[in-house]
Amino acid sequence: MKPRAKVVLGILGSLLLLFAFCVATLWFMFAPENWSKRKARFETAEATGMTLVGAIQTYSVENGAPPENLQALVPQYLARIPDTGLRDYPAFEYEIFTNSKMSLAWYDLGSRGGKPIAGFWVYFEGKPEHAILALTLDQHERVVDARVDRMPQEYDKIEFDAEKWNQRNSRIEMAESLPNHVTLKGATLSELRSSLGEPTGISTLRNAPWELRIKCSNGVVNWDVFFYWPTEEYPKQIYGGRTELIGRWAYVHE
Known about the structure:
Elements: H1 3-30, H2 35-63, E1 93-96, E2 101-111, E3 130-137, E4 143-149, H3 162-166, H4 171-174, H5 178-181, H6 189-196, E5 201-207, E6 210-215, E7 225-228, E8 237-238, E9 241-246, E10 249-253
Antiparallel strand pairs: 1-6, 2-3, 2-5, 3-4, 6-7, 7-10, 8-9, 9-10
């Protein structure tokens, strides 16, 4: 073999080794953690979090409302705000909800006919192969958000027809024109029942005045969350994933 060819092969070999090393390093950094080990870590974080929960609850009782932020607990209720104990997710986040109870009223729009979904899947309600009209309701059962979910990428479009809608006929095809004929956002559930009929189902999205959470993405593209509600009433799915109880907290597998 000519000396020049040996040099080229040597360079290629070095580049391949460097590439393999980079791939292995990235996999080690971003590969999902083994769940049994991960769960054990979050069981420890849950115990730490309950100390913070206790301080929030004591503050709420003594002041008639939860604190506006965690720093309001210092120094009367806590000497300092504790860390989570998780090196990769060190901070607790806290949020007060304007609407303590949020629900989802949804209408089945029919089967996609095997067609692929357009965009991201948001809600789990209903049959997976069906699209839905998803209406987020506040604590007064007023619509604060309206969207169609699990719609096919391509479909025929027709004008909304109340009779066809009530017969559950061609709902996917009418989805785009629906807002032009029926006011959704701002309407009450009672008003929607009179125009769209009874929802296919109603589920609880949230039932808590505040939330304490740890954002804990696991892997390259992931938005797992570990959170606590003072009601300790958690839905089976929330924040785009299914929930699993760890102590008195809920872990969301996104």
